[in-house]
Structure formats: C-alpha cells, structure tokens
Design a protein that fits this description.
One of its GO terms (molecular function) is UDP-2,3-diacylglucosamine hydrolase activity. The protein is of the alpha/beta class and 308 residues long. It folds into two domains: 1-37; 41-303, Purple Acid Phosphatase, chain A, domain 2, CATH 3.60.21.10. Helix content is 24%, strand content 21%. The protein contains six helices and twelve strands. It has a six-stranded mixed β-sheet, covered by helices on one side. α2 links the parallel β2 (56-61) and β3 (87-90). The protein is globular, with a radius of gyration of 22 Å. The N and C termini lie far apart (87 Å).
C-alpha cells in the first residue's frame, strides 16, 4: 500500500512538473510570437493650447528596433500615416541591427509629415548579447563600456530624416507651426549614453504657444532640466514600458533612474506633463514582451478651457 501511495505521489509530482513546463513553454511562445504583434495606438487629450485653438495631432513613436525578420512591425508603422497626424515625434532606437533601408522603408509615409527626432544608443551601436537577468536586477545598464566609434549608420539615418524635412533635436532647439499653433522644441541627447548636454543656456525654448521637450531616455536629470526650462510637455521612450510587466503590479524596472511606476504613459513632473512611450520593439537578444504590448501614442493637443 505504501508503494502504491508513493507511486501516486510520484505521478502527481510528475504531472505538476509537466504542467508547469507546458505553461512555461506556452508563456514564452505568447511573449515571443503573439504579444509582439498586438500593436496598440494609445490616445490622450492634453489641454495645452491657447483657448480656441484648433487641435494638433502628435504621433509619438519610439524604440522600433527594426530587424530584418520583422515585416509585421514595418507594415504597422507604415499604416500609421492613416491616423493623419499633424506632427511626428520619433524618440529614437530605430535600428534592430544594420537595417537602414528597412527603417527608411517603414517610416517612408510618415516622413512626408512634419517631424522632429532624437537618437538613442541603439541608433549608434549595434545590439550585443547581455544576460537578460541583469536587466531585471539592475536599475539601469548605463555606463557599460561601448566603442566610441558608431557601429551603425547613424549619420546616414540622421541625414535621411533631415533630407525629408524632420528636425534633429539632440541638444538642439527648433520651431514648427501647425495651423495657428507655434510649437517650440528643445531636445537633449540620450542620457543613457551620457549624450545629454545640459548647460546654463540649454535646454531653452524658442518662443511659441507650447514648449515641448524631446529626449530618448527619461532620466530624472533630463526631466528636471526640461521642467526647469518651462516645458509644457516632455516626450521620451527607452523604457519599453518595462517590456516584461507583472499583471496588476507593473514594470519591475525602467532601465534608467525613473521610478518603475512611471515606465510608460502620462504623468506629471513638477509643472510639466511627461509622456513615456512603451515603444514598438525589443533587443534581438531579448525578443519577448509580456503584459506590455507594443504601442505608439496619438496625442491630441487641444485648447485650454477659457474664452476664445
């Protein structure tokens, strides 16, 4: 009888182990195959314009990380022109390797729309293998050794965007007029690779109805600099929204010094509104997303309440 009970216990343990294994395989398959194709367009309305102004539609995209086997992602990006944005803001990390032609093909319809952009570290250096567990156990991978020479065609990417009319904002300012609204931009380089240049005179916004700060990685020092300069809105990416989120709890990390509860979405920072995009992609060495679907955001700027 003892032998029979032992046998049943062993079969039960084996069944539980098999179930856990199958659940793990199913979860990985979902994270690697299904969720990365579940693209979303998040929509937010922000009353930042003078009363009575016509709305301005801003498409914020980030962290495309486009690789050669991701035609599904390219097709989604091309389809975004159907949203008819007035302005595109690209907050960097376009490459998933040496994929300049693929990136330009994906963005081609949007490059006909006025736009501004900053660059991320993955626009400069190609991806390298890292232990994925380190991402979950460290707040940030900033400061890791990288070659000083770019390994990706970042200059060609920048020139291609500028040739189509997009303004490069790494540590620069720019202005655009959409309808009757003057938009003033100030940008900072990617703080994750210490490319942000905060000085006594930058960031400083040109004159305009709305002041918009743009950077890749939302480190607290960049948010502080933009807020101190009077930004109405700050746009960033980099965090991937955590990429692997715990349901009902959120992102375990942000890969910067931003609090994990601010890994994606809209939040207030001093008197500024900040929007962090969870982005569209991932590193080829961590090709999964869980409870964090790939996304872009359509931000509708509207007039503040008041008389026209």
């Amino acid at each position: 009888m003892a032998s029979a009970r032992s046998s049943r216990s062993l079969r039960r343990a084996a069944g539980i182990a098999a179930g856990i294994g199958l659940a793990g395989i199913a979860g990985f398959g979902y994270s690697a195959v299904v969720e990365p194709r579940m693209f979303r367009v998040r929509r937010h309305t922000l009353p930042l314009l003078p009363p009575g102004s016509d709305p301005v539609r801003i498409l914020h995209l980030s962290d495309m990380h486009l690789a050669g086997n991701q035609g599904y992602r390219s097709r989604f990006v091309r389809s975004l022109a159907e949203l008819e944005p007035d302005l595109v803001v690209n907050t960097g990390d376009n490459f998933g390797g040496d994929t300049l032609p693929l990136v330009l093909e994906a963005l081609d319809p949007l490059l006909d729309v006025p736009g501004v952009f900053v660059l991320g570290s993955n626009d400069v250096w190609g991806p390298t293998f890292k232990n994925p567990a380190r991402y979950l156990t460290r707040r940030t991978t900033q400061g890791e050794d990288k070659s000083k020479e770019p390994t990706l065609p970042v200059d060609e990417l920048r020139a291609s965007f500028e040739a189509r009319g997009w303004s490069h904002l790494d540590n620069c300012t720019s202005s655009l007029t959409v309808g009757d609204t003057a938009l003033a931009f100030a940008g900072l380089g990617d703080a994750h690779m210490n490319a942000d240049r905060v000085t006594d005179t930058h960031p400083r916004f040109p004159s305009g109805h709305v002041r918009i700060g743009v950077t890749h990685a939302p480190y607290s020092r960049t948010l502080e600099a933009f807020a101190g300069a009077g930004a109405d809105l700050v746009l960033a990416g980099h965090t991937h929204g955590g990429q692997i989120r715990v349901p009902f709890w959120g992102a375990p990390v942000t890969n910067c010094d931003l609090d994990r509860t601010r890994a994606r979405g809209l939040f207030s920072y001093r008197r500024s509104r900040v929007h962090v995009s969870a982005g569209l992609g991932y590193s080829p060495y961590s090709p999964v997303r869980f409870a964090c679907p790939p996304e872009v955001s359509l931000l509708m700027l509207v007039g503040r309440p008041g008389s026209d």
